[in-house]
UniProtKB/TrEMBL annotation:
Keyword Nucleotide-binding appears in the UniProt entry: no
Protein name, entry field: Type I-C CRISPR-associated protein Cas5c
Protein's organism: Roseofilum halophilum BLCC-M91
Keyword Repeat: no
Taxonomic lineage: Bacteria, Bacillati, Cyanobacteriota, Cyanophyceae, Desertifilales
InterPro entries: CRISPR-assoc_prot_Cas5, CRISPR-assoc_prot_Cas5_N, CRISPR-assoc_prot_Cas5d
Keywords: Antiviral defense
Amino acid sequence: MKLKFTASRAIFTRPELKVEAVSYPIPPPSAIAGMLSSIMWKPEMRYRINQIIMINPIQYSSVMRNMVKSKAFRQNRIDIERDRTQRSHRYLKDLCFIADFDILADDPIKYIAQLNRRVDKGQSFSGVYAGTRECTADFSHPTGEEKPHYTYDGTMDFGLVLHHLNYIPNPKGKVTWKEKGNIVKGDVEPVMFHAIAEQGVIQCSIS
């Protein structure tokens, strides 16, 4: 199944850059799965992203934002005037891509029909965001006339991009999450993949 997403701006923050927020040049598969889950989600299903088809050329825009240097805790207050600092955020501009994906479930045909109905009506469980809440995204069925921009001719190497996160149970871990109604403690392991676009099409499968 394929869906088209568009956003006037997007930011899929690279985890290795902690001070300045810089977006990946492409949406990571885990982010796309999150956008799809905002449209429709059931506990017994999950999304597998097969391909990302980039339509619009990669463009960036930079914004300077006022932020604070300190972390807020209950026991201390932040002096905004003294702690304020300016940091740059690098966004993707005029993002448009098509996600080719499968629904993994016992009866995927049923969920595909439900998803199609929701897309036709423009319905979503929550806001669909291109990275963060300030970057809203629109979704629709592809018309079949969309083609990657000519700048994607040939091969483009985007390097390592986050594919998904593995949640590993560990009683001494620093992260908690909910699994089958229970709170689980453990660690999070990022899984990366080498993103290479051939004529604007990125294969997301990993070994």
